[in-house]
From TrEMBL:
Pfam families: NAD_binding_8, Prenylcys_lyase. It comes from Selaginella moellendorffii. One of its GO terms (biological process) is prenylated protein catabolic process. Transmembrane segments: none annotated. This is Prenylcysteine lyase domain-containing protein.
Amino acid sequence: MLALAGAPIVALALLVTLGSCDASQTKVCIVGSGIGGASAAHFLRKYSGRPQNELHIHVYERNSVVGGRMAMVDLLGDRFEAGASILHPKNLHTVHFVGLLGLKKKTSPDSETFGLWDGKKFVVRTMDGGSSFITKKIAGLINALGMLWRYGSDLFRMRSFVSQLLKRFLHFYDEGRTPYSSVKDMLESVELYGYTQHTLVRELLREGLSVQIITEIVTMITRINYGQNVSISGLAGAVSLCGSGDDLWAVEGGNWQMADGLIKLSNASLGLSDTVLSVVSKDGVYEVTSSSGKNRTCNAVIIAASLDEEKIVFSPSVDLPKRSMHHTFVTFVRGLVSRDYFGLKDAKLPDLIATLEVPGIPFISISVLKSYNATDNAYKVFSRASLSDEFLDKLFSVRRKTIRLNWAAYPQYNAPETFAPVILDGNHLYYVNSFENAASTMETSAVAAENVARLLLTRLSTDGAVFNSGLNTMAKRGSEEL
Ligand SMILES: Cc1cc2nc3c(=O)[nH]c(=O)nc-3n(C[C@H](O)[C@H](O)[C@H](O)COP(=O)(O)OP(=O)(O)OC[C@H]3O[C@@H](n4cnc5c(N)ncnc54)[C@H](O)[C@@H]3O)c2cc1C
């Protein structure tokens, strides 16, 4: 690995001698238009301060739309997030993107009820406060007391574990940070690497949490957010727990708009429905061949997609540690969940039905996305395998429309985690998604992409890169609020 601490930053203008392609322009090719690729394009443009005729950025996207795992689904006229749906208030890059792009944030409703199903009964169930302000407040208080009675101070210990890790994570936004060519070094710099080497359950037991809260609340959350149980790493687990707090938000109209806006803002060229087939390194440049049949010569290539299920041919070949992606099946249903399935005759079903890690439960969670009337809701169901019509007919008493998606969603976490290099070939082939073994979220992709953008510019340049102090101000604000 390259030791980059304190490496001089060189003006891109001096880079023009790199390789044998057009000497007046540096060309960076980015594979993938998800939040990782879009952030890479944005930060390259921003930090280099160079226009397109000096730094040409091209983004390849095999789909006909941008956004990758930020995608929407249309369910009988209403559009819902099909992939990445929620963001944390301390996700400072994405918070910043939304402001920069003039997008609107929407926050999750705070009146959701939830039930924790063990296959036979609800082991935990919160009550609904109805529509009045007063009854809502009373129900909120009773629900909080109920949780306190069941889990006691473990709730605070769980929160404190998450806060400690979040505080360290916020150092990724510090001004003038060294760019890293290894995820291990990057995580070590903020004292988070150790948490990728042990399981979440081990870390939480060390913090003094009881087995009960771990097997119930924590497991419920890791199942919903990563489809996996508490044997994921401590860091992925803490990130997952962050996705269950207050003030979570999403972009009104769809999170994919962040990718769309950033690519446009960076003035990159974009090739939709164009799959990269091979990247061949020769004479200090890269020849990128894609399904459009057009070859492109680039000084640097950034892979902003998970390579685990991809068929890109690299020459010379690249060596990656084996990683499998966890497949999450998302089923959208417009209709009504059957009370009979849950053995409830009259009581209202919770808005979110989550499940314990118990063999034989075919789904992970069911949540109400929108309620139209007493017998008509839009639902999102997560599961680890495709749900058959036969099962869905038992789960739903009414089913007007069903849409099934199968996502290669996030890595199958397996502590101790090993990480692919950020620089795949020792030259200028970069890999944003090596960071996904630490955690897979929209924000972590943006953080990894920002690191790659700085690393690339640092390695290509000899003076004068522009760093924006705005991020530092946001990071300070974030830490102070914790
Ligand atoms: C169901 C689900 C729920 C999730 N929930 C959340 C959540 O609530 N909050 C959160 O923060 N995160 C969530 N995530 C995780 C989050 O979606 C990802 O971590 C993040 O979006 C990854 O972004 P990326 O840009 O790194 O990768 P991607 O979004 O996967 O983008 C990679 C892009 O590269 C393209 N591509 C791949 N190969 C090629 C090729 N050869 N040529 C051209 N293009 C190519 C792909 O089509 C894709 O568009 C969820 C994910 C899933 C699937």
